[in-house]
Amino acid sequence: MGVAYSVGEVDHLYTFFVQWSPEIIYSKHTSKQDFLKVHPETLSVIDTLLNNSDPKNWKIVTVNPQNKRCPSVCSSADSESEDLLPVLINHSQILNQHHLEQLMNEIPARTQGYQWKLVYSTAEHGTSLRTLYRQMGDIDRPVLMVIKDSEKQVFGAFSSDPFRVSSFCYGTGETFLYSFSPEFQIFRWSGENSYFVRGFLDSLQMGGGGGPFGLWLDADLYRGSSYSCDTFCNRPLSLHHDFTVQDLEVWTFV
User: Fold this and answer.
1) Are the beta carbons of 136 and 162 closer than 8 angstroms?
2) pLDDT tens column, 88-122
3) Nearest-angstrom CA–CA distance, 148 and 230
4) Which of 54, 92, 224, 237 is the most exposed place for a label (fewest CB within 10 A)?
């Protein structure tokens, strides 16, 4: 028996299966707070769908994920690991396959499975923090900042909120810093404070707590610095505390 469902019904069924057998999507990269809370109305819709069909006619079908998975800009037909990479809508001056493999496993579950769209790039938009803010004026989704410094080191930050000018710190515990200098490391929220992100016209700050910032950038997105901070208990992201930006990109998930 074949059954066709609308997109909305499929979403309800997905919620049902998550609650029925959460180990299907639970992995070492997720945490307890990633589980969904199902509204009673959602359960009612699921019950209606299930009760309208004879369970004896239901069949579980295994589908080869390679036949359904979206290809990556870095993918190849004979490499399953490469095929798992996220799809980049735009070309990146910084990110390569190694970077994508590491980062895709660390971003929150709610951003996984989406395409990556380039929102701001110094190569395309010039070196201006004001322009960076302006490019994110209509965005309400998380963003990933990627920096390559003058010593070819790659590092950056994931922010639960798009970067903007504010009179107070913003963001959630999803926010983290990361570095590939010299090997990949991720620095998540320590719980010590909530100084995740604060934007000024003359600087962008991430992490703090009575001392230097975990990541700081000037108005021209040319000079930056990175120190250990209470928010993320991180080590300096670059080889040196102070660095010069060569390329900077900000991506979002669509």
Assistant:
1) yes
2) 999 999 999 999 999 999 999 999 999 999 999 99
3) 24
4) 54
